[in-house]
## 1
Amino acid sequence: MQESTFSAVPLVAVLLPWVSLLAILAFPKRAEKLRLWLCFLGSLATFGVVLSMLPGILDGNIYTIKLASVVENLEMRLTVDTLGYYFGLVLTFLWLLATVYSISYIDHKHNRFFAFMALCESFILGCAFSANMFTYFIFYEMMTFGSYPLIIHEETTMARRAGYKYLVYAIAAGTVLFFAIVAHYFWGNGQLGFGRYGVLSLEFASRAALLTVFFTYLAGFGVKAAIMPLHGWVPDAHPAAPSPASALLSGVILKAGAFGIIRVCFNVFGVDLMRELKVYPVVAVLACITIVVASVFALTQDNLKRRLAYSSIGQVSYIILGLAMLAHDGALGGVMHLAHHALMKGCLFLCAGVILVKTGKKNISEMAGIGYQLPITMICFSVCALAMMGTPPSVGFVTKWLLGSGSLEAGLPVYIVVLLASALLNAAYFLPIVYIAFFRWEGDEVEEHGERHHPKLVFGKEADHELVVPVVILAALVIIVGIWSNVPGFPYSLVSKVVNVIFP
Amino acid sequence: MKMGTALNLVLILLLLTTALLAVTARDLLAAVVVFSVYSLIMALMWQRLQAPDLALTEAAVGAGVTTVLFVITIFKTRRREEE
Amino acid sequence: MRLLHNYHYAAAMLLFCLGLHTVIVRRNIIKKLIGLNIMETSVFFFYISLGYLEGGIAPIRTGGADPARMVNPIPQALILTGIVVAVSVTALALSMVILLYRQYGTLDVDRLMREEEPEAGESGKEG
Amino acid sequence: MGAWRHFPIFMITVPLLGAVLLPFLGYVREKWVPYASLLPLGTSALLGVLLIGRIPSGGYLSYHMGGWEPPFGIEIRLDYVGLFLMLVVCGITTLALVYSRRYIEKEVSGGRRTAYYVLYLLMSGAMLGFVATGDIFNLFVFMEILALSSYALVAITGNRNAVRAAFKYILMGAPSSIMVLLAIGFLYSVTGTLNMVDLAGRIAESGFTEVLIVSYILLVVGFGVKAALFPLHMWLPDAHSIAPSPISALLSGLLVEVCAFALVRITLSVFTMRASDLVMGTADAVGVAAAAAVLYGGIMAILQKDLKMMIAYSTVSHIGYIFLGLTAFTAEGLTGAMYHMLDHGLAKACLFLCAGNFIYLKGYRRIEDLKGAWGQMPWTCFAFALASLSVIGIPPTAGFISKWYLILGNVEGGKWLYAAVLLAGSILAAVYCLRVIYYMFFQAGKEGAWEEYWHDAPPAMLLPVWVLSLATLFFGVFSFLIIPSLLKAAAYLL
Amino acid sequence: MKKVAALLFISALAVLLLYVVASMPPMGDPDNPTATHVIPRYLERAEEETHTVNVVTGVILNYRGYDTMGEVTVIFCALAAVLAVLGRERRGVIHGFVDRSEVPASVIVKTMVRFMVPFIILFSVYTILHGETSPGGGFQGGAVIGGSMIIFTTIFGLYESSRRIPLKVRAPLEGAAVMGFFLVGSLGLVGGGNFLTYAWPRVAQGLHPSLVVWLTVLVEVGIGLGGAMVLTSILFAMIREEEEIAPAS
């Protein structure tokens, strides 16, 4: 691996969100606006600091800082390599937008929400910048518990139940993951770090042992990444959480699981060992099942956010599928989809939030004509919905194209069938929303003031700027990133550097 | 059998008997008194084992102080075991 | 045959078991404590027998007594401590018995333990 | 040889002497007793801190009492692990003592307060002596001081439940002490010595295998009762939950640990490697009991309605952790066990003191009553949450580090099942701890159950709680300060 | 059922213990480990090293003095524990149960006791002071004093006996044993040795034997006084009537 240079910047980035926390602690009762905007500034500064590392990362530098070392081999260390940087950039950006959005969206218990938002950002950034599995796990667990208050923020019965389910899943997963790391440490000769081509090998451990490690890792991270039999908490948690939190759940926290799997595949096991162990077909099958079944489930949902949640389950598995192809393009598409999906799904959830705030409507069947009431929001929604289906020129298309190309490269065109099926299903569950929003208002009679009539069309009363601006930015990026993916800092510029090394 | 051994055996037999009596007696006061006798026999036994310091201690503490503590307690609570 | 030779030890063990049996089975608290004391003295007995020397004399060096014939003083020193510990535990246990009888009106351990606890809440405090 | 050579003996005797002198102050100025009692413990803690670095890792400090060399006189033998545990004892006892003043004013009637502090100091000093001694009979003597003072401290409120719990404790504790005494007698009969190091050498050469095995079994049972190892734990839940909270903290956070530590020491440094072939069967049985303890304690804790009862059962479970670390017979497992003694001590003490805060301020004992506690007592609730995370073993608390080493040790020892049990134990811990946290933070309390405004416990009660909970965090993040030396010391012990 | 199980358990334990006994070294054999390992030095050199004729006293106070310090702490602890459970009389307010229940003691008995008690105490003082030369020592003497107080109390009642040894005498002396040990132990440090060193290495040719004996006697007296006072106080605490003990609210 290239020599890493010492730099305190990663630590600064991880600690900056705490500024928001300090702001909240400093004036918990007074100066509400100031406090909230300080939270925003904390988030902005974090993003800025992460962004400032971009030139160095593009030059191939690796920044590292050792926090603590329990014993040799077992240390807390932050390292910003290209892959970690990529995830960090995506998440701080999405976090920034979600913070802005929350300022207007959250209407009670601001302090708790923003405090935990900031904490979560810090922890998950720690995940992204972890240098080894030990550090990753520590931040991952903290993030798990830090995100709990976000999910139950509404404190409705539904939210509590969802939070409970989330905790049950997360704790079980954490335990399995913990076991995986101990086994990894034990059989990996004490090597918990991320190597460029993986650190485990059959020299030190038997096949069965490595398989155990792999599948416990997969199960542990699979809960967060919502691989199909382990996805149970996702469809409950997303609708229950406030919309910015759902956007982050779907856009970032699910990705933390997926990112863990990426790390396991690329940097712990390495592609060669994956081939040798022949684990990838199992993973691929799981991913395919998840993609298709989740989409089918999504079709049946009437609650918008629940439908989006199921969609997320399917989409995150694109990443897993891309990894399981063990091909250059497949990996490229899968890893890039991490950012792509964050943009699209973040936007969609924020749109759902706007709808909820302005009209109080949760279910798709009630949304007739809403496109005229919230034109900007719904246009953005439509853009993202189309992108989800894989319509060019959007990020969704890039993903699908690369995955398709990857499956040809891997010699398994059957994946293309899955991708196409998924695209069709996506169309089947997204297009009706767009259709209802823009083209259906006549048929829906409603009863109001004792008489039945068609709802009046209301034009142009868009939501606050804080709500709309993030939505618009995300929707624009869905297109822009889809077209100019190679702009420095955009997914391709970063991911290709990683993937090109692994698949020369 | 030597004279000393026979005496030892008798003492041990007495010890076992008094201990058994002490734990079976229904009257607690009787039990405590028997226990005091047990302690005295024990002191005697220890004297025979060439431990005069301990014989003295056991006579004073085991047969004396402990017994008195038990007796006080029984006076303050009840004398007979409950059914 | 060693058992017969070590009959002091054997007697101590039997007393120990008798005492333990009393502690476990007897329901009367005072009986339990008598059992406890029997256990203790039996162990002391065992220690002192350990230190005994065939034909030995007490370890007091008066009048040019032969050190080689003296019995072992260590167990005796230990047991002095042991006796003090025993009487201390007994005193504490008995004072608790007095208090328990005053509060529960029984010396029967089963009844004592069966007694319902007052409803939780302020129960931790008195007065 | 500097004066520091004498520090260990002063760490032990100063609290004991303080206990003897305290009644005088009690007659003159009873009000000053709580403050004055801090002095001896503070002195001990200071001396302990000054000893850090004096003991070479892998080595030990040997102090010959009265100047008689070891097999003839009593030796204080302090290795790195021992000093570590002594420091933990000093720290937690001092903090719980700071906490005691207000709590005891409310819970314990006037005449008994001085007795409380006297017993408290005796208990602390005895724990220090217990950890440090290198003589097996001396171990027994200090165990008895410890036991007597803890019996009385459980009963100190004079409340009928308390006296009953204390009596239950005596009925199990006293026979167990006698068993230990008998076991020491057995050992003495075949070795003729009482010094632990000398014993180890003599045991290694001794041919009396049966005697050794039985004496080991008796020691395990005897110390097992004191350490509340699973089938022998019956006294613990009552005693720990009914005692005044600072005492619960001491019992749960220290007493069971030092007893477990004594068993560890006896196993590893008295019955050394050759002999541990002999005792391996017993050790396996201990492993099974410990695994059962982990699960049983966890499940029982989930079923409890009373907060302190829940914490007490959690202790039963965590004692299982410590013993599982020991029976792995690997350096990692032992390190995990030692570190668990530290973090469990800190976290449990913190939890009990938090529970004490609720009792002190509102008289609430049931978990259900804590719904919405956050609104009134945020500081207590946050400290409770932090300590709970350590009990569960969530990073970055110290509980995580010890769990890591415990599981790693069991994996290295090839004991996969026990590793799984440890994991299951932490899931159970998550269930019982998070339920309380959930009630505190996310449930609305009953009407009028809590004040509308923040009104937390007084600072003297919050300070120890927060120091303890932050310490769990500190020792999680800065575990590297201790772990390497512990690993080295553990490897040396094995 | 429970009884049968307990009986089975105890029987098994008895068999196990007897088995152990059968495999132990024979009792009284001069070749036993107990008789050959540490002992010879004590027996041969105790007199010159500890200046006590009674080797047991030498072991208790000198070789294993630290244990004995623990022991006296135990009884101090027992006192504190009993007082914590039962409470202590307040100065000047004492009601003995004997006073109230009118124990019928004849004049003869009273006179006997009045006559005997000083002699018993004299005997115990002898026991304490000659602990290093003859059987007995501090604790035995203390226990005998405690016993004499018991006799006195049963005949004359708590009021009379607590007038003889009032609280203000007992209370300071209860810790005498521990303090005596601590004092002598620290003096050992001053003398350049370790804690509890009687023969001070700093003094040329060692401390004069008679001084060592004086130190030993000092400890013995401490133990005797402390033990006697503790036992008396425990006794008084247990005899006291309940109205006195009821916790103040």
## 2
Amino acid sequence: MLDHILSILIFLPALAAVLGFVVHKDSAKAYGIAVSIIEFVVSLYLWFAFDPNVSGMQFMESLPIVPAFGVNYLLGIDGISLFIIIMASLFTMLGIASLGETKNMKNMVITLLFLQMTMVGVFAALDAILFYVFWELSLVPMLYIIGAWGGPLRIYASVKFFLYTFTGSLIMLVGMLFMAYLYYQATGHWSFSILEWYRLILPESYQLWLFAAFFIGFAIKVPMFPFHTWLPYAHGQAPTIGSVILAAVLLKMGTYAFIRFSLPMFPDAATFFMFPIAVLAIIMIIYTAMVAYAQEDIKQVVAYSSVSHMGVIVLGTFALNVEGITGSVFLMIGHGIVSGALFLLVGVIYDRRHTKLMSEFGGLASVMPRYATIFGIMMMASVGLPLLINFVGEFLSLLGFYQQSHITTLLAGTAIIVGAVYMLSAFKKAFFGEVTNEKNRNLPDINKRELVALIPLTIIAIWLGIYPKPILTPINNSVESIVALMHEKAITPEAKSRIPALEGKIIMQKSEAEVR
Amino acid sequence: MLSHVNVPLESLNIATLVPMLIPIIGALFILVIDLFKKDLSKSMYVMLSLLFVLLDFGSLIDFSIQFNTNGTMLGYFDLMLVDGLALLSQFIIVGASLLFIPLALTSKRFHEFSYSEFFALFLFMIAGFQFMVATDNLILIFIGLETASLALYTLIALHNRTKSFEAAVKYFTMGALAAGFYVFGAMVFYALTGSVEIHQMAAVFEADGFANLPYILVGVVFMLGALGFKLSLVPFHTWAPDVYEGASASMAGYMSIVPKIAGFVVAMRMFEFLVHSGIVWMDVILYATVVITMTAPNIWALVQTDVKRMLAYSSISHAGFVMAAVLIGSTQANSALFLYWVLFTFTNLGSFSMLWISRQKNLPAGQSSDHPYTKFAGMIKTAPLVATVMALFMLSLAGIPPFGLFWGKLYMISSAVAGGYIVLALIMALNSAIAGYYYVKLIVYMFMKEPVHGLEGKVYSMNASTSLRTIIGIAAIGTVFAVIAVNPLLEFITSFVYNSGY
Amino acid sequence: MEIGLTHYLVLATILFSIGLIGVMRRKNLLMLFFATEILLNAVNIGFAAISHYYNDLTGQMFAFFIIAVAASEVAVGLGLLIVWHKRTGNINLDTMSSMRG
Amino acid sequence: MELYLYIALFAPLVGSLFAGLFGASPKTLVTGVVNSSLLFASFVASSILLVHVLNGETVHVEMMTWMATGNLYIPFGFVVDQVSVTMMMVVTVVSTIVHIYSIGYMDHDKGFNRFFSYLSAFVFSMMVLVMSDNFAGLFIGWEGVGLCSWLLIGFWYHKETATWAANEAFIMNRIADLGMLIGIFLIYWNTGTLQYDKAFAIMPTLDMTTLIYIGIFLFVGAMGKSAQFPLHTWLADAMEGPTPVSALIHAATMVTAGVYLVVRANPLYHLVPEIGLFIASLGAFVAMFAASMALVNRDMKRIIAYSTLSQLGYMFAAAGLGAYWVALFHLMAHAFFKALLFLGAGNVMHAMNDELDPFKMGGLRKKMVGTFIMMTLASIALAGVFPLAGFFSKDTILEVGFVEHHYVIYTVLLLTAGLTAFYSFRLVALIFHGEERYKLFGFHPHEAYKFMLFAMSPLAILAVIAGSFKTTYFDMVTKLLPETEYHIHSHVVEWVMILGTQAFVIAAIWYAYKKYINFKGEDKEFEKRLCYKILINQYYIPYFYEEYISKPYKELSDILWRKVDLKIVDATVDLIAMTIYKTGENTRTMQNGNLSSMLRWMVAGIVILLSLAVAFGLAVRYSDEITSVLSGLGV
């Protein structure tokens, strides 16, 4: 089973989704929960079987798809992708379990299972085309979820989401094809294997262009300023489950791709673009935090906060050292857990009141104390309080970037201030004060179904905040091999000096081919 | 003056004519049957035609085996040229026809299919296209083209609606003008070289180093105009939307595939040596044409309210996309063209067939065209399976992986990148993104809007019959599981194209 | 002055241009068909002259084929024209714009 | 000893979780009792550790790894040494007392259990803060106390002012925390570790600039937590929280964390005396500045809060001048008498139905004898009158200033001592002496529960006798801190100074009594004066922050969202899409359905291509001429 565990993880939900058409609509939710539990258990088994001391790829599978063109079904995971996969299956499971009254429940469940396939696929793919296939395919279920179950502007939001990301990824595709062509030139055969591409040393000018092409695709997905405007609409209109998965997993594709593609393939370009990207990241952090502060809709606050946090992740990624990248990967997990939980929490109140405007609430803490408590914990996690999950990632990301630039990190560090400003003020508006709106007077507190999803997330948020080691160690090992590879490959003196040399670490792939 | 013609029969290699003769014989056979017995069921004609087309397909397989061993074959006074291009395009032509014919077996009665002439003309048309691609003689190309076109005009008109007559007249008139362009171009080349065979013309031009460049360009311009009409390159595309709208959906689907591949092969033969001659003008003009043909119809497709018309514009755009292969001119690009077109065949046939099964006999009140977007609103609720399949085709057309057309796009853009046309590759990518909008728009209507036709899903499969469902099933399978077929297909196509010297 | 190839070709071109203008200007479907016939026949002249110039029969063959094709075109065209006339009662091009955009 | 360490550390956490279990349920006395006992256990464990440390031994444990990546290694490590044990004692003593006191104080509150949960959580955070053996652990505690402070200030969350103050406190602290974080980053990248001992060992080898930056950034962190100017406004507003909270967090423990940090980082500040001087100057300034605001304020708790601020200034002044042990000693003494003062104020508030304006009280000493005695004791201690605790600690600080020849600082601190005495006794006079003005407002004051007074009594005792520990304490703590004794060499000067100071202070007390003991009503004339207005408005600093920082930030946020994000960034994207769409709308007329125009398009295409061909042909033919013309044009 271990040889094909990744394939099982990818295609089990897809198969289940197809079979799901036959399931009676009343049992659809139970079916979805059952399948996603199996999937989650398998993904946990993956973790169990994963050897944290190996820095390279594990559970590799390879099957030629278009050998004439070098496209392979090539799977494998390392410490970076492992946990995002687990998180994807966790959120699908919790998401389905927490689904309330939903029209067309069956369609929803089937769509979610398809979405799960694409999510796992993206993070398990080691072939650029395979990666692209899942990357694009993930748009479709999300388009449907937003468009079919969303709010009043759902069609605008979903189409915007789709087209925006689609455009970006097509440009990325051109970049991939160019990369493949360069590989072809250097070696005489086509290959889209990421691991093969790692071996290619490119001249700086090529790196810059390729980096830019990949960047557009990834940046829109992340989403980085100024490409972020699809996100508020998508989140604002999406149903709770859509927002949860979008924020928790889909956004991570972009930052994951930076680590998987941009850094090890174009170390010199990454160094070259480090500061421009850092500036964008700072804008993301501060600007979006301010915009979040101005929101009237609590869901939009969380949506913009996502962008702000993604800024920290991007910054950590481009620290180009082990601390920063490890931190950013960890923050991906952390942000996934926390923002996912926050969206679930917003969904709880939305289900009760059918509005997300903070002015409609106020004083909820006394009406729904348990709800307020969990919200408070997650808010504090989001704000980056130590011993909660996000702090570890934020701390390491900022710490990492501090090696590259002091003033930039200082500016980016304002994340902890501006983040507190919008979060606390939103919390105050919604939860504190007297109950002024009569409709809120008798709201029922959070119920069992909702707790099923939220309690595990709360536990994870605290557990990983106190004891991040089980996750941090595998991530660290994989990141070390990437950084070592980058240092080895770097050709400009700038990059050589910026990317730390790690003596005695295993380099994932020796560079052999060189394009001139 | 004329000397006695004495040609040994075996050197004629009459066999090269067999693939064209089969449909011609079939057509005559059908006409003869009609002479003896009227009012035969259309299913009989359908099956008969199918039989002949299958035979034709079989002969092509035979030829491709021969091609693999012997390479390019000439025949019939060297008029016939059976190379990889010819075979590949004939495979597409015949294969697409094979899938098209069963669409005549609709559950609603459309009277064109009750005429035996319909099938006879159809078979003649196939033969015409086959002639067109299997030669590099301008005369034979002309004859093939006109045979096919005249048959096609008639087939469109047979749909017997005011709009289809209008479409036929428009198509016919413009076709006549294009024929004028073609012969004028041919005349110029003939005047310059004294030959009407493309390879000889090329040889003459190369021998004198393109001395008469201005005149050559005049010839090229007229040829481009004529082929541009066939391939619906902007600004010679204006017929396409109207004709697609006027013709029946099945016919429109057919038109979006078969005449174009024939045109592409001629264009490849015609422009290959010119592109490689290093004439800057040629590159610039083709580049501009490709870009405009990709972009402009894309933008027009955005604003359409009728799905069929949207698909018409999208087909034009796809043609422009593929035309890039002629510009790039590498083996990879030419292979990409065929790969793209095979995959496009399945997807486009599928999507037009989907329109065809939702075709009502008469336009309902308050509906100005057959397939407005609004008609498909909320389809997921009323006819989930139909909606899903339709969405599948739209996603494939938009180039969402892993559906069929994605692989074509992938390979085509890759060939542009490899050919050094990075900017072109980017334009292609961006156009795919724009195109995403109108394909997704249909999905939006189907999946995200409330139904307008009540909860009765019947309207979407008004015209459905077993054979239509089968065809759609084949198209859907071809679209979804293209992944598996891409590699063998690619290897097959590449070896054929490469061995033909393109 | 001897009439040479150039003269024929110029004639052919002029005729072709007349045909083009006719195609562009005529609003009557029948006249339009005539214009296309002029186009094709202009080329025929050219082919015949070139054929003679090269002393090669191919051009004349081409011309014959063009004549044949032109004839069948007329057959089809007239057929369409008649049907159109039956349906709409006129053969004016401007009435023919139910599809647009 | 490790066991005692863990008991001291985790007993409050257990209490917090225990009370948290009942968080949503109505009052259960058991939570108060259990939590108080656990705190007492923590206190006992701390005392045992104190004895251990007094014997000259320290305890250092590493519980487990927290973060490890790259070269970074951060464990959960705890150290009990002379400095941390001082803090542990202060924290556990005060918090145990406050816990017991709160059982009475929060008696009628709906959130009784919640309160104990938060309060114990605070103690746990504070213990982490003081016991951690590395900067990251310190930061955990640092943020943890920030969180608990937020929770407790906003404990009565239905009050707008309370939640506002809570958020203000949290955000202001965050600003400072950023500085602290940067300081931590600097330490890591320059020393490669965050362990105190290792990092301080490497610091002498670093260059001066780096050390200065580290010093500055760490101190910025300290400024926030200890509410130093300009981040001081939150402390006065934090008085919105329940009074025991003010006593524990905003007087005795949390706000002194900044002082603790500076003391803990003494090897660093020892290397950069410039920063030390800055700290001392700022401390002296804040001492005076805060005391001045306390002079006129009409809110009992705020007056005490400003007094706290002022005393924190003293501590920083001492620490900045290198007298770390003095700072720590004052910290301890201050914790006792200030907590006592607050708890007394809490009693008064209870008696007066949460009335805070001392002008509405008066003559309460008859009704509340115990409270009166304890508050007076605390005030005397605060004023620094011999032989109470404040005298020993504060006088040493003055001596330090004098001995170190920083006479400006000395003078400022001396004047402040007078001010301190004045405002303390102004308060005492207004509350407990004079006419019983409260009757006019219909209050019926009563003394607090006996056990509350009983609980306060240890503090009262400590406030009186803490000065006697000075020598013992000096011996103990200087094993870790620089061993500097501040003795004025001339005995005459010393006596003159001590007596002078005492006289000055007593004079200030006398003046305060004289002015306020027979207080009749408000002095309207005085209130019109400019200096009064400035002081009562806290130098207009909160106003300035509100008008020039908060509001502009809010407005800018609004502009960024409505104008920039929606109207520019998003609109650009939509504009691109709309342009494409509109182009389609505008050019679709090309397809007007008219056959004639279609034919014309075809001919036009040919004509365009032909003319391009001709142009190209001409260009090729005359390429030489074109080149020469173009070169002539300078292209």
